[in-house]
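Can anyone check this?
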Amino acid sequence: MVSVILAILVGGLFLGGVVMAGDALKRHSPARDLDVRLVEGDQFTLRVRGWAGYELRTIFADFAAMYDIEEPRIVEGPGRIFSIDWPSGLEEAHILFAVNYLHYPRDFDLDSRSILGAARVWPGNLTGIADNQSAFVFVPENDTHFDRVHVIDESGQAYLGDFGSTAFVQIDDARMPREVKKLFT
């Protein structure tokens, strides 16, 4: 029941923001500079376990409509791990939003779910992360905020990407689920 309430709350926040902010929300860029930065499609990928393919297509059709972007290509791999890719690229902020939305989509019951999702972004594609470092973007374990992601770069430095902020903030506790890296092997 608590998960249903959380899902409704998060969905309401997403919908309320879209309705109230309109196009301004689409241009809102948390955890990055104010310039719109397109990350080429071959420079990142999202992976997820815990959803069925038809559910992911529904989730990302909704996501694409919310942000007025193309729908991603979704491919199931071994172990029911799905790759989610935008061949034409995606704005940096939308990558962060997509990782978050994997965990908190609208109109889905999350009570009986164990979702593990993250993005891997190649070096030089996340503002504020060293240009020579690739990074994992994920929702932290025991998340209670629902509007942020964490990032950990190759050197092990952790960052907070709060959707109300304009830059990543270094943090000491990444809280990266231990299975995240296995999504990409």
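Reply from J.R.: I decoded it. Residues 2-184 form one domain.
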